[in-house]
Design a protein that fits this description.
Aminopeptidase; alpha+beta; globular
Length: about 160
């Protein structure tokens, strides 16, 4: 019974790893499913080529279940995008992805992390608040849909 439970638990968690240039296509496809204006594969390739950009992916085998992408400059990081594939949303996979990414940023010297999130995106707002982010600003009507963006910050120690 214990072996079965271990296999079940192992299969239920994605593998989180540093992303590679080869992930650009999968990230573009996932971004297009997740946002009103998806970023192209070429845009992701340009981001991966930038030495200030770091990305992690969550995967099940060859399937990309999610990603997180940040820019790091002068000890401050900005999370540029986070996406979880529709089939994997609501299962708690964003938290280990975010935690791994934040640990990596802290390990390379980031002192603070910023991000913007739509105030109506309840799952994302909940995730970020549980991860220790706090609101430091608002951008009224920031998104094309008219939704206000919350500017969040988390200090890394």
């Amino acid at each position: 019974m214990m072996g079965f439970m271990n296999r079940l638990l192992t299969r239920s968690a994605p593998v989180v790893a540093e992303a590679r240039q080869a992930d650009a296509g999968a990230f573009a496809a996932l971004h297009a499913q997740s946002f009103r204006r998806g970023w192209s594969e070429q845009e992701f390739q340009r981001l991966f080529a930038d030495r200030n950009v770091v990305a992690h992916r969550a995967s099940f085998g060859r399937t990309c279940a999610g990603f997180i992408l940040s820019s790091l400059v002068a000890g401050e990081a900005e999370i540029l995008s986070v996406a979880i594939a529709p089939a994997y949303r609501g299962r708690g996979y964003a938290r280990p992805l975010l935690d791994t990414h934040l640990r990596w940023l802290a390990g390379v010297g980031a002192r603070a992390v910023f991000l913007e999130v739509g105030e109506t995106n309840a799952p994302a707002c909940h995730l970020y608040r549980r991860a220790g982010f706090r609101e430091v600003g608002r951008r009224q009507g920031y998104y094309d849909s008219g939704v206000t963006a919350l500017v969040l910050r988390r200090d890394l120690g």
